[in-house]
UniProtKB/TrEMBL annotation:
It comes from the Bacteria. One of its GO terms (cellular component) is DNA polymerase III complex. The keyword Nucleotidyltransferase applies. This is DNA polymerase III subunit delta. It comes from Catonella morbi ATCC 51271. One of its GO terms (biological process) is DNA-templated DNA replication. The lineage of its organism: Bacteria, Bacillati, Bacillota, Clostridia, Lachnospirales. PANTHER family: DNA POLYMERASE III SUBUNIT DELTA. Residues 9-104 form the DNA polymerase III delta N-terminal domain.
Amino acid sequence: MIRYYKNALKNAVIGSGDKMNLNTFSGKITDINNIIEPAETLPFFSDYRCILVENSGLFSSANEFSEYIAKIPESTVIIFAENDVDKRTKLYKTVNKTGCAVEFEIQKENDLINTIIKKFAKDKITIDYELAKYFVNRIGTSMDELYSEADKLISYVYEKRTVTKEDIDTVCERQLSDKIFDIMDYMGKKDRENAIGFYLDLTGLQESPVKILALINTHFTRLYNIKQLMAEGKQGEIASLLKIPPFFVKKYVEQANNFSDATLRDAIEYGIFVDNAIKTGGMNEYVAVESMIVRYSA
């Protein structure tokens, strides 16, 4: 949920594609001037400059940053995403007074269910409470995953305007390969932060890096094959030739178009190299997969 709202806030301030007016800081901040300097810079052809600060450690001990927060330029918006926050610190109190401080807790099941019902209702699609509950229980509490799967389901049932349990079972099989699809989406959009974030989430859930790498390699090969079929004018045959559900073809095509042919060929070759390096002990498996993600989301 934190990732979802963090990105929503960022996009609301400067838009999803504006990188000129975005500065990001991740990890412990030892010199607050590193944040102050870009904060004092005027935005470039935009009303605002956005500064995203994650897990800085500034809210867990005394520092002088609160004095600056009280007088930041009106054209600068600072978003903090912190795991460790002491509400007694002067900085927290200043942020809460000057702006807004929100504590994110895991949402209750009923809140998630109602959120999903409202999302479907926006597209004039009916899903009753029990089915929404089944959907949430199947996918989990991650807003990123819930929204991603809801979008797929909405596309699948769009014409009939109602959802059945069979639809959910058909579309929302949350296997590891589906989560790899999300990582590949972020890689194609050059969103390294979220690509790495999803990978770390998976390893945090004890998913094997070697297995993740195998699925990434398979996915790159599939995207390359899709581009070749498109070049041959066989877009209508992608589903049957590559054994892809027809309603997912559009998403695969969009994803394939985020990579050039040369990049996909390089990714396939590099994937083989990384796999061999892991097997021969030349690379740590966690670092190896991360290097693959970084290389193709840059």
